[in-house]
Amino acid sequence: MNGLIVTFLLILTTGISAQPNWWDALNDPIISQLAPKIASSNLDVKQAKFKIDALKSQSKVIKSGLFPQVSAIGSASRGNTLSLQDTNITKIGVQAQWPLDVFGGTEAAVKAADARVEGAEADYQNIQSNSIAELALAVITWRDNMLSIAEMTQQINHLTTQVTMVEAQFKAGIVNSMTLKDVENRLAQSLALLPLYQNAADSAQFQIEQLTTLTNLQLKEILQSTKAHNIAVPIASEWQLVEILKNRPDVYSARASLLAAKQDLAEAESTLWPTVSIDAQYSRQEASELIFIPNTELWQTGLNLSYPLINFGKIKNKINSADAQTQVLVNRYQLVLAKACQDIQSSASTYTARLESAKNWQKNAENAKSMSQFSHEQYKAGMIDLATYSSIEANKYLANQNAIHANAEAAKAFIRLQQTQIQIQ
Questions:
Q1: Domain residues of the chain, as ranges?
Q2: What is the pTM of this model?
Q3: How far apart (Å, rounded) are the C-alpha atoms in residues 153 and 151?
Q4: What's the topology of domain 2-63+103-273+317-420?
Q5: Which of 1, 286, 365, 382 qualifies as a FRET site for 321, CA 20 to 30 Å off?
């Protein structure tokens, strides 16, 4: 496994590639309209952006340690410690200190801060892309249920007509009570399913509102404009596992965290060595009793060296803590890589199966439609009875609903496959 980690660390340093807007392949006007607005409207995405800004500011603070620090100084006192009588002494000036990063502690801190910024940027893109994927899944779920409602409504209207006809035939003694009960039961089942589809559609709509922060009225206006749009099932493009892993945001973020931890360890180890700085000071001193303390200009410059002698294990424990954190993040990186591989392969397998299932259910729906048309002609010609015709019609509506649902599941599988292949941009 360690060899795998080294290999991917080398791969990940080769660069970053962009990825097109995969959601356009769904050919859904709602998704195409709302997906680009996620970055400016989704609260999770906004929070991730604020984290980047905070880490960038923190990185600038750390980088300032590489440069001289200049400050103004001043003091005012009264006493007789410097003379034989009470004297007022004032001093004003400037002082500068330039820490020399001889042993690389500050440089390591800067690299750690930069790595954390890169990790936060990868997290930002991951959250944004996942939010778009969740939006697409919610829209497809909404369409699945709305199309099912439309199909179920047609079936209810058809069954209502059939119930009326079978009741008349039952009264005339043409059919028995079992035939009437069968049609009535089918109608009752369809009526029972209708509110369930509506509830699922409402739940999906509420999820879209949460993801986009649109009001209920704003979203309803958008949804109603494309209510009858069918679900498209895109064909996924070919992909290479290594290329995907190289630019996946979660892998990139885990790598950045690992690199930051290694730099934290280097910074901790640098405290084993002396700290070196160049110090300089210039000031003007004035006293009320010039006989004893003359007014004068004071200056001082030199090299300051500090070496830790007794710290009661502080440095050692700091190094041990940084080393342990590095090992934790090495393990986390391995887990992220393993999970990424599993997610990609699993989603690809699911997509292939769902795509094949959607094709088969579509063929089944087409066959059921042909059978329905043929049975209708037979029924009008008196070759089959109403019960047989009603059963064939029920199979047609069921096949249509299965085809709608299979298309939706295949589209969702495509979205989840794309979600596993999100790339750093």
A1: 2-63+103-273+317-420
A2: 0.81
A3: 5
A4: Outer membrane efflux proteins (OEP) (1.20.1600)
A5: 1
